[in-house]
Design a protein that fits this description.
Blueprint (H helix, E strand, L loop, with lengths): L5 H16 L24 E2 L4 E7 L2 E6 L3 E3 L6 E3 L3 E5 L17 E6 L5 E6 L14 E5 L18 E7 L2 E6 L3 E2 L2 E2 L3 E5 L5 E2 L6 E2 L14 E7 L5 E7 L2 E2 L2 E2 L3 E5 L6 E2 L20 E6 L5 E6 L12 E6 L11 E4 L5 E6 L4 E5 L3 E2 L13 E2 L3 E4 L13 E2 L5 E7 L2 E6 L3 E4 L2 E2 L3 E5 L16 E12 L3 E6 L32 E4 L6 E2 L14 E4 L7 E6 L5 E8 L13 E6 L2 E7 L1 H4 L4 E10 L3 E10 L3 E2 L1 E6 L3 E11 L8 E4 L9 E7 L2 E6 L4 E5 L9 E2 L30 H4 L3 E7 L2 E6 L4 E6 L12 E4 L13 E8 L2 E6 L6 E6 L4 E9 L14 E2 L2
Parallel strand pairs: 32-35, 41-47
Antiparallel strand pairs: 1-4, 2-3, 3-6, 4-5, 7-8, 8-9, 10-11, 11-14, 12-13, 14-15, 16-19, 17-18, 18-21, 19-20, 21-22, 23-24, 24-25, 25-26, 27-28, 28-31, 29-30, 33-34, 34-37, 35-36, 38-51, 38-65, 39-50, 40-42, 42-49, 43-48, 44-47, 44-50, 45-46, 45-48, 51-52, 53-54, 54-55, 55-56, 57-58, 58-59, ...
């Protein structure tokens, strides 16, 4: 065994110190595989007053800092006096009665402590637990009882500590100070993480007001937020400053932590130079967070509506690996005039909080404009492009805003100054927790690539008898078909079916065992009888409406079960059923028909007049239905979808697929398929959405993510003069649809062509929410209208594969053309690769698409 002498040990000790200095950062946001649930947990107490500034979890306890005085246990109602700092059990939500520090002023930042079972606390306070000796601004407390960790003693500072992060064996401390102990430190300092002793590593001076020059708003100079990359090599600093070591670094600067001392990194932008509203804000940056993989960070701001070219009242993404001057954000998402206060990145989502009414609203000025979507107080953005995701719990009333977001390995904590989540749905006083359990895994963005099949709508196809047109699991989640045919659509409270009117409720019972009688079709899964939709109110009665081509003969199948003890006797639940205005079941009673805990299906032959209308009318108690299925009973031909194989060289024969369900495919205005969800525009100015697995088409529904029944009619505040609601406005692509000819999706972008315009347009797009960006970009084509490179007369084929864009030419042409494309612009010349005069294949279509 090799012996290590004293000199060698000393050398290793020095090397170890260097490695620790640039070692991993602590308290990095964890990575999630899904968005968190939109329903908050009950495992949080209610904070009685004030505002939450900071949240951190250490072990099985959650610590909360801010400006409050008392906290109340949920359920028991026990009130605990807790000035500025408290802890609660992460599992039960009960306040920790043993953790009782006395902090005499505002807590502004929290981090896990330098040793186990400790928490680092920073803020404005000048005293802790009435202990003499200058314990102020930055201390470490024992998590068991809130006593001071005496082995950590930070130097005195002449201003508040607003933010702190650990990297290696050091703390990066930011605040409104100019001295740390006897040393001059303008806003930034580094301390020994274990002892709190002064460390010379960081000597970057942040000076100057962003806005204040003798007039306007005047606030303290210094950083308000710092974050460190997971590998501990870079730090991003945000706050009220204009210079860093005398250089121009307005409100944001990046530090390189890899050298013998911290240095200003080669990263600079002028985008935070704007004054925004100088009379209201000295500085307008509010929060930042670095992604779990350390590749980018997001900044959120206030500042008032200043237009799409400003970063005020917006979230923006910045790449950490970028270098140089005048750098630009990867994306920007504007609220249209409302402050964003907090941000947390989990890899799957960028969560932002504030008092915003809308997101995706760059043209808004305290109003919703084209592209806007209601996201009261909270939103989740796509990391790739910043477009709002579907997650939308809401926070109304919005108050000053959601001031703290903190992600844990199993969820997201939200701190604020308000009492409610949703629209007065869940009382969560100033702190709420959204668990990862129950969240949604977002689509992966899977699209087609050659070789594949190209699908051509507007073709004649055979229609078999017993073709399933609709299946809905009333009141329950989506179900996989057991017969290989159409899957069962969901109809939950969170995602109600678009085929029934509003006002119904759902009920789920799975605690007892049921059987199915012979009336239940073989393709109906047992799980369809677990949930049901019922109608507690007779005004209006529950109505379902299914579009079916006029003259089509169908069988309407309605399934029921009595498995609730409240309805276990004959006569407990009796109601009438009408189809297209005709009573088909008078005083229907499942108990009288088949008895308790027996699934049963009623079947009615109908000839459609264009829409099959099913109405449930009150009799005794509330009408309810477990499942709805509509099956075509007559064979024939119709306008549907065909396909052909294509590998980039050889096109196969056209074969029928299906989709002859009354859809006016001839009116298509472009289509694209992503993750087995088909989006398509129509000449009526609507976008439609349905599932497609390569064989079966799910029911079509109008897709309008800019309308949300929960928020469209809700006033944005309760002031007597308020008339403004959260109602949003569709993206301008909807007005373009009558002239759109083709579409495809790739890497967070929706590309499309417009008849008569020689360009390939694109907008950012979220497959999770189906929202398109409010800003339109374009890659120009070239040449005269007769040139292959010209895009002004396209047909419906448009897709990307192998670095080439393929499109079909309209008019009398019908050729398939391809040209090299790098995602932003075209290069080289175009070439016709197939067509009527090349291989006898005509590629004209109102909106073809490929499948991955």
């Amino acid at each position: 065994m090799r012996r290590i002498g004293r000199t060698t040990v000393a050398g290793l000790a020095v090397l170890g110190a260097v490695l620790l200095a640039v070692g991993p950062a602590t308290a990095v946001q964890p990575s999630h595989d899904r968005t968190v649930s939109a329903v908050p947990s009950t495992a949080t107490p209610n904070i009685n007053d004030g505002t939450v500034n900071a949240i951190v979890k250490v072990g099985d306890k959650v610590f909360v800092g801010g400006t409050f005085t008392a906290v109340t246990d949920r359920g028991t109602g026990t009130v605990h006096a807790r000035p500025n700092l408290f802890a609660f059990d992460a599992t039960t939500g009960l306040v920790d009665t043993a953790f009782t520090p006395v902090i005499n002023d505002e807590v502004m930042t929290l981090q896990p402590g330098p040793v186990a079972n400790t928490v680092l606390v920073g803020g404005r306070f000048t005293g802790v637990n009435n202990v003499p000796g200058g314990w102020s601004k930055l201390v470490v407390l024992n998590t068991a009882d809130g006593t001071l960790l005496s082995s950590f003693k930070a130097p005195s500072m002449n201003g508040a500590v607003t933010t702190v992060k650990r990297f290696g064996n050091r703390l990066l401390v930011g605040g409104f100070f100019t001295t740390v102990g006897p040393d001059t430190r303008n806003g930034l300092a580094s301390l020994d993480a274990l002892t709190g002793a002064m460390d010379p590593f960081v000597q970057v001076a942040l000076t100057g007001h962003h806005n204040y020059n003798g007039t306007g708003a005047n606030s303290s100079v210094g950083p308000t937020e710092v974050d460190v990359t997971p590998d501990g090599t870079k730090a991003v600093v945000l706050g009220n400053f204009k210079q860093a070591n005398g250089g121009d670094y307005d409100q944001v600067v990046m530090l390189d932590l890899t050298g013998a001392s911290a240095a200003i990194a080669s990263w600079h932008t002028n985008r935070f130079d704007d004054t925004c509203n100088r009379n209201a804000f000295d500085k307008w940056v509010r929060d930042l967070d670095i992604s779990p993989d350390g590749s980018y960070f997001v900044v959120v701001t206030t500042g008032g509506p200043q237009g799409a070219n400003s970063l005020c009242d917006a979230a923006s993404r910045w790449e950490i690996s970028a270098t140089g001057t005048n750098l630009q954000p990867t994306w920007v998402n504007h609220t249209g005039g409302d402050t964003l206060l907090s941000v947390a990145i989990t890899g799957t989502a960028v969560y932002v909080g504030g008092h915003q009414r809308w997101m995706n609203n760059p043209e808004g000025s305290d109003r919703a404009r084209q592209g806007s979507v209601a996201r009261p107080g909270l939103a989740a953005l796509e990391p790739m492009n910043g477009i709002p995701m579907a997650w939308n719990p809401g926070r109304h009333p919005r108050g000053i805003g959601a001031s703290a977001l903190y992600a844990t390995e199993d969820g997201l904590y939200v701190g604020s100054d308000t009492e409610w989540i949703g629209n007065f749905d869940y009382q969560r006083g100033r702190i709420a927790y959204f668990p990862l359990a129950g969240g949604q895994v977002p689509p992966q963005g899977v699209v087609g690539d050659l070789p594949t099949e190209v699908f051509f709508p507007n073709n004649s196809v055979s229609i078999p008898a017993n073709d399933v047109l609709y299946r809905v699991n009333a009141g329950g989640p989506a179900l996989t078909a057991t017969d290989g045919l159409l899957n069962w659509d969901a109809d939950t409270n969170a995602a109600p079916s678009g085929y029934h009117n509003t006002g119904g409720s759902t009920n789920s019972i799975a605690s007892n065992t049921i059987t199915l009688d012979a009336s239940v079709p073989a393709g109906t899964p047992l799980a369809a009888f677990t949930d049901r939709r019922y109608d507690p109110s007779a005004a209006p009665e529950m109505m379902w409406n299914f579009p079916v081509t006029a003259g089509t003969q169908v069988e309407v199948r309605l399934s029921f079960v009595a498995r609730d003890w409240a309805y276990h006797l004959v006569g407990d639940r009796v109601f009438d059923i009408k189809i297209d205005g005709v009573t088909v079941a008078d005083d229907y009673d499942t108990m009288a028909a088949v008895g308790y805990k027996v699934g049963h299906t009623l079947k009615f032959p109908v000839t459609s007049d264009g829409t099959v209308n099913i109405e449930f009318l009150h009799g005794s108690l509330d009408p309810a239905v477990d499942a709805v299925e509509i099956v075509r009973t007559s064979a024939g031909t119709g306008n549907g979808v065909a396909k052909r194989a294509y590998d980039g060289s050889v096109a196969g024969a056209l074969t029928a697929v299906g989709g002859a369900d009354g859809t006016a495919w001839q009116n298509l205005r472009g289509a694209f398929l992503v993750d087995n969800t088909l989006y398509y525009g129509m000449s009526d100015g609507n976008i439609y959405k349905r599932t497609f697995d390569g064989v079966n088409f799910g029911p079509a529904a109008v897709h309008n993510p800019h309308s949300d029944p929960r928020w469209d009619t809700q006033l944005v505040d309760d002031k007597p003069t308020t008339t403004l609601t959260y109602a949003a406005v569709k993206t301008a692509i909807y007005t373009e649809l009558p002239n759109v000819r083709s579409m495809f999706y790739s890497n967070g972008r929706l590309y499309y062509t417009i008849n008569g315009q020689n360009a390939l347009f694109w907008r950012a797009f979220s497959p999770d929410s189906g929202i398109a960006g409010a800003v339109r970009y374009q890659a120009n084509g070239s040449g005269l209208s007769t040139a292959l490179e010209n895009l002004s007369a396209p047909s419906g084929v448009l897709f990307l594969s192998g670095g080439y864009v393929y499109w079909s030419r309209g008019g009398t042409d019908g050729r398939l053309v391809r040209r090299a494309f790098d995602g932003t612009g075209f290069t080289g010349t175009a070439a016709a690769v197939s067509g009527p005069t090349i291989d006898n294949v005509d590629w004209r279509s109102p909106g073809a698409f490929i499948r991955g």
